Amino acid sequence: MPRRIAVDRVQEVYATSYRRLVGQLTGVTGDPVEAEDAVMEAFARALASRRSFLAADNPEAWLRTVAVNVTRTRWRRSRFFRDVSHRLVAAERYDEL
To answer: Residue-wise pLDDT tens for the chain (97 aa)?
Structure first.
């Protein structure tokens, strides 16, 4: 499929769905900046996976799913690094004794 078709479709869906998606993701994240970033990442992935995106019956739902998955991944990574950093700090405290 030509890239131009995908770009045109993404632009069309962006014009109709962007604000709604950011609003929905703000409800998920509690942070409008994080929500906007996740939605933009979803649009970028739509272009990178254009066959899957163009084949979707509901492109807004496709984007929402991707944006929620991006948010989940980021949350898991931040939780993991927070937990690891606490363990490292605790280990350093014992080393000082």
So the answer is: 578 888 899 999 999 999 999 999 999 999 999 999 999 999 999 999 999 999 999 999 999 999 999 999 999 888 766 766 766 666 566 555 5
Reading the block at residue 82, the tokens are 């927070």
The pTM for the full model equals 0.79
User: Can you read off the two tokens belonging to residue 96?
Assistant: 């000082």
Calpha distance 56→51 (Å, rounded): 9
Phi and psi at 61, nearest 5°, equal: -65, -40
* Gap between the Cα atoms of 23 and 53, Å rounded: 21
Q: Is residue 9 left, alpha or beta, with left meaning phi > 0 and alpha meaning psi from -120 to 50?
A: alpha
Q: Are the beta carbons of 38 and 9 closer than 8 angstroms?
A: no
**Residues 50, 6 contacting (CB under 8 angstroms):** yes
φ and ψ at 49, to 5 degrees?
-115, 50
